[in-house]
Amino acid sequence: MNEFNTKQIVKKYNFKFSKRLGQNFLIDDTVLEDIVEGAEIDKEDFIIEIGPGVGTLTRRLLEAAKRVCAIELDESLIPIINNEMKEYDNFSLIHNDALKVNFNELIGDEKSVKLVANLPYYVTTPIISNLLNKGYNFKSLTIMIQKEVGDRIAAEPGKKDYGALTLLVKYYCDVKVIRVVKPTCFIPEPKVDSLVIRLDKLDEPRVKVKDEKMFFSVIRSSFNMRRKTLWNAMKTFKLSKEKLEKVFEAAEIDPKRRGETLSIEEFAKLADEMLK
Ligand code: SAM
User: Fold this and answer.
1) Which residues bind S-adenosyl-L-methionine (predicted)?
2) Per-residue pLDDT tens over the stretch 1-12
């Protein structure tokens, strides 16, 4: 057991875990290694880490990368991380909510920026949506998430997990599953299995659409009313019956289908036709 062991650090500072902040700290060396290896970090990389905890993963990132900036919300962890990382001059810490940070200000002129995080599970989906929708210049996001969210991200059309999150990630990224992580790899143990995945940002979105707002709005409406036919789901856009018939005909999509059966290309066609 080395002095940088998570349990030792937690004990040293008498740190009290907060369930509310999704604090499950990694204690398994193989998982830490697999995250760093899976993120394919090198000395050119600027790493942004969300939620460093007591810095177990942070230390490994600092050894592998050019520079690391970590964002932590829990005030009680700030002096702990600062003290634990004091030997590194390539480390900086921001005390803030990751959902409120303007990442462009952190990224600045950096060319090779990778996000790495063992995410707090209560905000996984808002954090992923925010990081992708804002168009930040990340090369990749290597994240630990609940397995259930991972299954939604990697789902195929027609499957129960297929939804708005699947399509959002698919629009912007290629998805690579790195490994499954069991609850015993954390303290305290979460109730569910976790997954480490890497999202590689595409140079251009996967499909070309006339208007991204309309594209995501069509997707949202389709999955808000999951059990309804597309015909009924698209009524929220208040088009005339004739116009809506033309839209489905031009997009070559049967209006009796449900949204969960449409590929990303079909959603793009449908959204584009709605604008004509
Ligand atoms: N990286 C550490 C590890 O792997 O052991 C800790 C990961 S723990 C799952 C999540 C971390 O995110 C905690 O340190 C928690 O305090 C922090 N956190 C929770 N909500 C946050 C938020 N909205 N913004 C930034 N950090 C947050």
Assistant:
1) 24, 26, 51, 72, 97, 118
2) 455 689 999 999
Contacts 24+ apart (CB under 8 A), 91-95: 91/58, 91/62, 91/67, 92/67, 92/68, 93/52, 93/69, 94/69, 94/70
Output the CA–CA distances (angstroms, integers) from residue 234 to 198, 258, 267, in the order listed.
33, 11, 12
Distance 188 CA to ligand 1 centre (A): 13
| Nearest ligand 1 atom to alpha carbon 27 | 5
21 Cβ closer than 6 Å to some ligand 1 atom: yes
Cis peptide preceding 188, ω within 30 of 0: yes
pLDDT of the residue at 226? 76
Q: Give the number of other Cβ atoms within 10 Å of residue 164's Cβ.
A: 18
Pocket test for ligand 1, best of 73, 100, 196 (most atoms within 8 A of CB): 73
| End-to-end Cα distance, the chain | 65
The domains located in the chain, with CATH, are 3-201 (3.40.50.150), 212-274 (1.10.8.100)
